[in-house]
Design goal:
By secondary structure, the chain is of the alpha/beta class. It folds into two domains: about 140 residues, 3-Layer(aba) Sandwich (Rossmann fold); about 160 residues, Lactate dehydrogenase/glycoside hydrolase, family 4, C-terminal (L-2-Hydroxyisocaproate Dehydrogenase, Chain A, domain 2, Alpha-Beta Complex), CATH 3.90.110.10. The chain contains nine helices and 16 strands. The strands form five sheets. The chain has a six-stranded parallel β-sheet with strand order 3-2-1-4-5-6, sandwiched between helices. Strands 7-10-11 form a three-stranded antiparallel β-sheet. A hairpin with a 5-residue loop joins strand 13 and strand 14. Helix 1 packs parallel to helix 2 and helix 3 runs parallel beside helix 4. The protein is globular.
């Protein structure tokens, strides 16, 4: 928690409480994130904000009824004035992805929503960390950096943290091994141009291909293509079956919050502004980064082969073209 001098009867706008989180947007994702954070014990105060105040109040009331089964935490519906001393804001507000719709299809609608939210945050001189979860997360993270005028390290997106978890899940099933022992990343866009960074993947330090052969698998190229496609299309499959995805991303958000609140310096594939790595600048992409109490500390060098580098640059170009079309 940041320490600051203040009189008991005054609350300084420069004082941030790392154990106070504000969730903006109380749809499926926002509600699931709030529920996961209540159970985590990370926060002492959770504020829910939504354009529909009744929705925020209903979610806060419902979730708060479970507090006696968890750690003490105050959960309530609030407004933008409640962000003044918050250490973390999580933005999930945005249009939902519909069956047959890509994340990039949401661009215009959700940029418009962000243009109404971010000036309210800027007006309160918020000093904490801004975590973007709404899609398309890489585009909206770039928009948030520009409109919030917060330090770039303090504005980042949930990125491919969930995609990476899906990759580990698929590999764990394929190899019949604990997915937590797998070290691999999905990088680039959180979307159709995402890249599985196979050349740097390993299982407890053993190169992935070697481990596969140890488990009796030799058709590496076909297996990798199938697994990468399953990961990329998993959200579409879930949306087709149940209209929305929210539990997985809620767990990913909780994991990111753990790294921030506990200052873990964890390496997570969050979406942050690129500054020349792999020849890419001016766009947010999901890359392995050290995450702690001050946000994104730095990107972590990752080994990529020529094809992966080319795919990453194409992914960045796709997003930059979308930004240009929307005059951001």
């Amino acid at each position: 928690m940041k320490v600051c001098n203040k009189k008991k009867e005054e609350k300084s706008l420069n004082c941030t409480n790392i154990r106070k989180v504000v969730v903006i947007g109380c749809g499926f994702v926002g509600a699931a994130c709030s529920f996961a954070l209540m159970q985590s014990g990370l926060f002492s105060e959770i504020v829910l904000i939504d354009a529909d105040k009744n929705k925020a109040e209903g979610e806060a009331l419902d979730i708060s009824h479970g507090v006696s089964f968890a750690k003490p935490v105050k959960i309530y519906a609030g407004d933008y004035d409640d962000i003044n001393d918050a250490g973390l804001i999580i933005i999930t507000a945005g249009a939902n992805q519909k069956p047959g719709e890509t994340r990039l299809d949401l661009v215009k609608k959700n940029i418009s929503i962000f243009k109404s939210i971010l000036p309210e945050i800027k007006k309160r001189k918020f000093k904490g960390i801004l975590l973007i979860v709404a899609n398309p997360v890489d585009i909206l993270t770039t928009v948030a950096i520009k409109l919030s005028e917060l330090p770039e390290n303090k504005v980042f997106g949930s990125g491919t943290v969930l995609d990476t978890a899906r990759l580990k899940y698929e590999l764990g099933n394929h190899l019949d091994v604990d997915s937590r022992s797998i070290h691999a990343f999905i990088i680039g866009e959180h979307g159709d141009s995402e890249i599985a960074a196979w050349s740097s993947a390993n299982v407890s330090g053993i190169p992935l291909h070697n481990f596969c052969e140890m488990r009796g698998y030799f058709n590496h190229d076909e297996a990798m293509r199938t697994i990468a496609e399953n990961v990329k299309n998993s959200a579409y499959e879930i949306i087709e079956k149940k209209k929305a995805t929210y539990y997985g991303v809620a767990m990913a958000v909780k994991r990111i919050c753990e790294a921030i609140v506990r200052d873990e310096k964890s390496i997570l594939s969050v979406s942050s502004l690129m500054k020349g790595d792999f020849g890419i600048s001016g766009i947010s992409l999901s890359m392995p980064a050290i995450v702690g109490k001050d946000g994104v500390e730095c990107l972590v060098p990752i080994q990529l082969n020529k094809n992966e580098r080319t795919s990453l640059q194409k992914s960045a170009q796709t997003l930059q073209e979308i930004l240009a079309q929307n005059k951001i």
